[in-house]
Amino acid sequence: MSAARENIAFSDNQGNTRRIISNSLALFLRMIFVTIVNIYSVRFVLKGLGVVDYGIFYAIMGVVLMGTFLIPVVSSSLQRFYSYSLGRKDEETLKSLFSISCNIVMALSVLILLVMEIVGLWYINNYLNIPADKAGMAIWVYQAAIVSFIFTIWLVPFTALIFSHEDMRIYAFLSCLDCALKFAAALMLLVVTHSALLWYSGALFLISLIMLVAYGMIAKRKYAECEYHLVTQKTLYVQVLSFSGWTLYGALAGTTMIQGSVMVLNFFFGPLANAAFAVANNLYNAFNSLANSIVLSFKPAMVKVYAEGNTTELGRLFYLNNKLMLYLLTAVSIPIIAEMRTVLSLWLGSYTEDMVVYCRLFIVYTICQVMHNPITTIMQSTGDIKAYFLFVETMMLLSLPINIGMFANGAPSYYLFVNIIMCCALSHIVRVVCLKRKMPAFSIKRYAKEVVVPGCLIVTLAFGVAYLVHHVIAHEYIRLATGIVSIPAILFSMFFLLGITTDERKGLVNVVKSKIGK
Does residue 357 contact residue 344 with C-beta atoms inside 8 Å? Predict the structure, then answer.
């Protein structure tokens, strides 16, 4: 019986790993497509709108996107409850959760609309740094952005279902479609001769409506629980809203770090700083997409095995998640950081020094930020997140007043990124301590031994290689190509030899063999 149980457990572990790798591959391919298309889209949008209009567009979007923290809050909360119910095989709760999610999203949309039309409009009219001749157009752009944002919120119940069922190929296809439509809109800017900013805002509005219809139709056909009915079960509402409330507090910190920075930069440095920040933010989004291709593959599986009480498998997935994110992100980021001027030249044609510094520091922040995800996934799986978010995210919320104080005393604009990186690193230490207190079986010593120490050594070695390549090869394009090939090869080799345990190495080899065998 013991041998049989071990075989079943091994089979389940292999099944989890195989599914995660398959989903990661689908999301990774999606990320490559989205990244390449978005990179070229920025070039066309910048050329079609001009630097000033692009800075205005991004500043306005910064006001609207202050509400984006609500999307991952609701989505993460619903995914947790969906995945937990799937792990428990509780179909009735799943059906109720979908209806509850629709009610919550609709109520949230009304609240957002009121806040945006009152507070947001007041801020734009009184404090946003916009040229006088562009003020009327800015209001129309703002209204289109609000409606597009509300459509995006309405997507949440459907995307949460897709993630919880681990149907990442569906998400990959639909998000690629969304990206392709936005790229087409960017291309059209090259032939639009009048009111390009208004035209582009209207196109984004139409695309958001198309994606809402597409997600809704597919989810309705694929998932039996995707059917609305009236739910009066107050206990379930309280559980979801309570969980969302503390997740909301955590998301506020992330929004303060990013979208709050947009408004602070606009106030102290004007639209040109916003344009540089917008370029860097596109790289941030690209690297987040890469990280999400791993996070989204692991998260539902981790919640489900927690619901099943399988702490051994949970620990295995936790460490594997940390390692894959760290090494994959650094393999991509190091050659880009080292050759940022060449990258920006190929990408945009021309660039400012602010863009170079912003992009480099934004990438470093992204790597620090995404390393929180495996810890947060486990904490959210427990459902007891009040103390966690209260402690760790308070640090993040302090970044905005610190930035304002620095800029008021004459600090250069790139100090914004130095500040948020420091806050992010300090909060990670607190996250590790919180995880240890919640789950005594978690070993900080093991975390340092398996993740932190080898990670620092391997990444330092890769930066050393990047430094040599940068100073030995004179031609910038050959230098970039050499770095893109050599640094990931070295990182992945070191990851396979030193960055993972023997059992993890055997597991990955077996999964690769099974894929090749097919």
Answer: no
- Tell me which long-range contacts 409-413 makes (C-beta under 8 A, separation of at least 24): 413/265, 413/268, 413/269, 413/273, 413/354
Looking at residue 120, its amino acid is: G
pLDDT in tens, 355-371: 888 889 888 888 888 88
Could you tell me which of 376, 366, 373 has the C-alpha nearest to residue 434? 376
**Is residue 3 in a domain?**
no
Tell me which long-range contacts 103-106 makes (C-beta under 8 A, separation of at least 24): 103/231, 104/74, 104/240, 104/241, 104/244, 105/74, 105/153, 105/154, 105/156, 105/157, 106/154
Domain count of the fold of the chain: 1
Residue 411 belongs to a domain: yes
pLDDT, one tens digit per residue, over 484-513 is 888 888 877 877 777 677 766 766 666 556
Q: Measured between alpha carbons, how far is 249 from 389 in angstroms, rounded to an integer?
A: 7
- Residue 383 falls inside a structural domain: yes
- What mean pLDDT do residues 432-442 have? 85
Q: How confident is the model at residue 232 (pLDDT cuts 50, 70, 90)?
A: confident
Around Cβ 357, how many Cβ atoms within 10 Å?
17
148 belongs to a structural domain = yes
Under 8 Å between Cβ of 511 and 500? no
CB 295 within 8 A of CB 75: no
Q: Say if CB 344 and CB 493 are below 8 A apart.
A: no
- Which residue range(s) make up the domain with 198? 11-517
What is the per-residue pLDDT for 209?
92
